[in-house]
Amino acid sequence: MLGSSQVFIETRGSAEGAGRNTTEPPSHYLAVCKNRYFFIKSILTFGASWLLVQTPANGSRAAKIAAAAFPVLDKIYADFAAQRHVPGLAYGLIVDGQLVHAGAVGYTDVAARTAATPQSVFRIASMTKSFVALAVLRLRDESRLRLDDPAENYLTVLKKAPHSPSDTPPFTIRQLLSHSAGLPEDNPWGDRQMGRSNAELSALVGRSLSVSNAPGVGFEYSNLGYALLGRLVTRLSGQPVQAYISEKILRPLGMSHTT
Q: Which fold has domain 127-250?
């Protein structure tokens, strides 16, 4: 599972097991320093936090923020973790493309009392889908696929699988990317399939592929759809999707902490 990186993401995320209560964002905060206002908008998703800082163009931004905002920022996250019983989280502040402050609260392993640090790597769950989509688009740019091609042109398991209803038209790669392929919404079922092997996934799809709508009719969030896209990346790149994303996307960006 992909983790976050200081190169790509402004901050790091929650400890495994933080649960759904980490998705509620803290409010907007305003810090004042020498009659200048620094607006910090903080959003927590699975405990991962991105911070956007808008500051005056003149003077040393980092120095001004360090004097006034760092203690406020530390307190925001310490209070957030305490109030919502978050097992652990890590955060960072980017100014002008540079990490100027980082901190952590709590534990990455509560039972072992392993303290969270700014270097801790956390599971980012469905944010992984963004990387899968980028891999598909990279293959598109290399003319290895066309987004409006039926996905079954590249994945024979889809062509062979019985469809329910039987007159369901084939869905396209674009429709898989946009959750509009007609596959039924599958949370939390999808989370329980993470340990399945490729062979088990092929067997699952090969038995029957049920849809709830015709392709292109509407949006339904599908973990299975993105699992199929991962298989497509593996098929066309000739290497596991994780290896392809690492080699072609993460490493060129310097995201050495993301796996």
A: Beta-lactamase (3.40.710)
